[in-house]
């Protein structure tokens, strides 16, 4: 489906409903007959794929936070 910018502006809520309900896979918005944008449904990654995605990919060394006091001292030096 293709609509012009004026129609997209006027009927934006309707167009969003069409895409949201999957009655339209996408809607192309055109200016002077040339496509300039596309309205598509938002696809979010399931939470199960985001949380723990790096599990087993790296190992935190035992001395990871060994320099915390030195870093804090560097950050807190001088006038604020």
What does this structure look like?
This protein has a three-stranded mixed β-sheet. It starts with a strand and ends with a helix. It has helices spanning 5-10, 12-20, 47-50, 68-76; strands at 2-4, 27-31, 34-39. The protein has four helices and three strands; from the N terminus they run βααββαα. With 80 residues, the chain is α+β, with helices and mostly antiparallel strands. Helices cover 35% and strands 18% of the residues. The mean pLDDT is 88.
Give a quick set of tags describing it.
80 residues; 4 helices; elongated; 3 strands; three-stranded mixed beta sheet; alpha+beta
For the terminal residues, how far apart are their CA atoms?
Answer: 58 Å
* Total count of strands: 3
Q: What best-fitting shape do the alpha-carbon axes yield?
A: elongated
- Sheet/helix structural class: alpha+beta
Compute the number of helices. Answer: 4
Helix fraction bin: 25-40%
Average pLDDT metric: 88
Biggest β-sheet strands, sense, barrel? 3 strands, mixed
Weakly predicted, low-confidence segments = none
Tell me the Rg in angstroms.
25 Å
Strand order of the largest sheet: 1-2-3
State the assembly state of the protein chains. Answer: single chain
Residue fraction in strands: 15-25%
């Amino acid at each position: 489906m293709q609509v012009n910018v004026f129609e997209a502006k006027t009927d934006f809520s309707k167009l969003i409903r069409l895409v949201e309900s999957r009655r339209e896979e996408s809607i192309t918005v055109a200016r002077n007959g040339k496509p300039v944008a596309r309205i598509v449904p938002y696809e979010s990654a399931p939470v199960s794929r985001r949380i723990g995605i790096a599990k087993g990919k790296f190992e935190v060394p035992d001395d990871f936070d060994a320099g915390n006091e030195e870093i804090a001292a560097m950050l807190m030096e001088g006038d604020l």
